[in-house]
């Protein structure tokens, strides 16, 4: 039942790790999911761009890439790569705090592992609603 946070090719230390872990489990529980083995890898734009090229054949920059490693329904096992560079830029562009954008992206990856998609406008609308709900249950400690 491990949730682990890593940094690759950047210096980044997620504050309040235990609070984030508890929150991630709470978000998963909304749809009766159980977090078995989840890794969040915080990285640079260049690092994530290389993963996008190598594994998805996409020559674009993105804020997040999620790999689902689960073989069982309602069990979350996966790797979520997050570009801290993109999170900072998106926060600035959208005129919101870095911490809020980071929570949105962390929830977004988890929601993908829970089966939420974001290809169509309807899916995007549902994903945004779930991201906002997820952020709203983050403990204010």
From TrEMBL:
Organism: Anditalea andensis
Entry's localization field: Cytoplasm
Source taxon at top rank: Bacteria
CC terms in the record's Gene Ontology section: cytoplasm
Name of the protein this chain belongs to: Endoribonuclease YbeY
Cofactor notes: Binds 1 zinc ion.
Claim: Acetylation is one of the keywords in the record: no
Record family assignment: Belongs to the endoribonuclease YbeY family.
GO molecular function, one term: zinc ion binding
TM annotation in the entry: none
Broad class of the protein's primary localization: cytoplasm
PANTHER family found in the cross-reference section: ENDORIBONUCLEASE YBEY, CHLOROPLASTIC
Gene: ybeY
Enzyme class at the top of the EC tree: hydrolase
Keywords, in A-Z order: Cytoplasm, Endonuclease, Hydrolase, Metal-binding, Nuclease, Ribosome biogenesis, rRNA processing, Zinc
Biological processes, Gene Ontology terms: rRNA processing
Alphabetized InterPro entries for the sequence: MetalPrtase_cat_dom_sf_prd, YbeY, YbeY_CS
Residues holding Zn(2+): 108, 112, 118
């Amino acid at each position: 039942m491990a949730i682990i946070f890593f940094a690759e090719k950047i210096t980044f230390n997620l504050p309040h790790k235990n609070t984030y872990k508890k929150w991630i489990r709470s978000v998963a529980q909304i749809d009766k999911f159980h977090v078995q083995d989840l890794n969040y890898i915080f990285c640079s734009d260049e690092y994530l761009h290389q993963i996008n090229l190598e594994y998805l054949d996409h020559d674009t920059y993105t804020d997040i890439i999620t790999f689902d490693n689960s073989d069982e329904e309602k069990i979350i096992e996966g790797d979520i790569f997050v570009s801290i560079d993109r999170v900072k830029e998106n926060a600035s562009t959208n005129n919101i705090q870095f911490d809020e954008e980071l929570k949105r992206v962390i929830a977004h990856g988890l929601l993908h592992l829970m089966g939420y998609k974001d290809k169509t406008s309807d899916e995007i609308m549902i994903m945004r609603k779930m991201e906002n709900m997820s952020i709203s249950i983050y403990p204010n400690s």
